[in-house]
Amino acid sequence: MTTHTEAEIASQPSCWRQAIEDVPVDVLPRRGERVAVVGCGTSWFIAMAYATLRERAGHGETDAFAASEFPAGRRYDRVLALSRSGTTTEVLELLARIDTATTAITADPTTPIMTAADEVVVLDYADERSVVQTRFATTQLALLRAGLGEDLAQAIADAEEAVAAPLPDTLVEAEQFSFLGIGWSVGLAQEAALKMREASRSWTEAYPAMEYRHGPISIAAPGRVTWMLGAAPGGLRAQVEQTGGTFVESGLDPMAELIRAQRVAVARAFARGLDPDEPMHLTRSVILSS
Questions:
Q1: 3-state per-residue secondary structure call for the chain
Q2: Please, are residues 254 and 184 in contact by the beta-carbon 8 Å criterion?
Q3: Residue 9 in contact with residue 106, Cβ under 8 Å?
Q4: Taking residues 225-243, what's their average pLDDT?
Q5: Rounded to 5 degrees, what are φ and ψ at 65?
Q6: Are the C-beta atoms of residues 197 and 288 closer than 8 Å to each other?
Q7: Partners of 180 in beta bridges
Q8: pLDDT tens per residue, range 111-157
Q9: Least confidently predicted of 108-117, 122-131, 236-245, 270-279
């Protein structure tokens, strides 16, 4: 029997295609605006990725914050809020107290974020039944990347490969994972680690690739995995392999490589007798009581 999480992971290439068919560029951050992107959990990590991509593309200064850590008094032309559920307490409270232009991306058009933000993009076809967020996160990033003018044809082809490729036993059975990224893939490395924790309760960490050698590499060892999303810095593979650890680098688009990490997280959950659809201590949306 296929779990909701497995089905949602497998559907990502088709969701990405749908996202880029009709990009609402008149609602997304405009070129030249100073933008803050906010979210919680997975949405914060996607915000990190988009902020780096937007600046790199020359569209304007862009910062990313956990919604609870938005800096009071800092001025932006627009705040872009990412929230699958549309009910996350910290996001709604932030939208209520700021007086700048706001755009939100959500999966549920029946939730409070629809009136809390000035403009809203609804990706209801990418919504999920699983608590663990997979396809909504990557679909909104596909939309945002397309909005920056990126051609995602290769990313989608890579995603199809990532969905179908067999998973090595060394990844399913590993003791520990360190996910690494460079630039925009640092946020995706953080998200890959989060998926491992949520779905399979695995010991995972995440770092910028160049920072990994400044201490964290000390935990590399046989039975442990250092997993690069994107192209690794020169010499890093050799340094990891000298420890006896496993170094993973596929050459796929980092967003497609995230799919592989999602699949490994699910496989590890099954190996541990866990239900990836219902991770321990988590709910679909964090709603805080006053």
A1: CCCHHHHHHHCHHHHHHHHHHCCCCCCCCCCCCCEEEEECCHHHHHHHHHHHHHHHCCCCCEEEEEHHHCCCCCCCCEEEEECCCCCCHHHHHHHHHCCCEEEEEECCCCCCHHHHCCEEEECHHHCCCCCCCCHHHHHHHHHHHHHCCCCCHHHHHHHHHHHHCCCCHHHHCCCEEEEEECCCHHHHHHHHHHHHHHHHCCEEEEEEHHHHCCCHHHHCCCCEEEEEECCCCCCHHHHHHHCCCEEECCCCCHHHHHHHHHHHHHHHHHHCCCCCCCCCCCCCCCCCCC
A2: yes
A3: no
A4: 97
A5: -140, 145
A6: no
A7: 207, 228
A8: 999 999 999 999 999 999 998 999 999 999 999 999 999 999 999 99
A9: 270-279
* Joined tokens for residue 203: 């010991």
Task: Identify residue 213 by its one-letter amino acid code.
Answer: R
Q: What is the mean pLDDT of residues 239-264?
A: 97
Q: Distance of CA 86 to CAs 8, 34, 284, Å?
A: 19, 24, 11
Q: Measured on CA atoms in the order 140, 138, 163, 210, is the torsion positive or negative? A: positive
Place of tokens 């100073």: 34
| CA-closest candidate to residue 246, choices 262, 269, 267, 264 | 264
Residues 195, 196, 200: CA angle, nearest 5 degrees: 115
Backbone angles phi, psi at 105, to 5 degrees: -120, 125
Residue 207: phi and psi, rounded to 5, are -150, 160
The encoded tokens of residue 169 equal 């036993």
Mean pLDDT of 38-49: 97
Q: Which two tokens stand for residue 196?
A: 């491992």
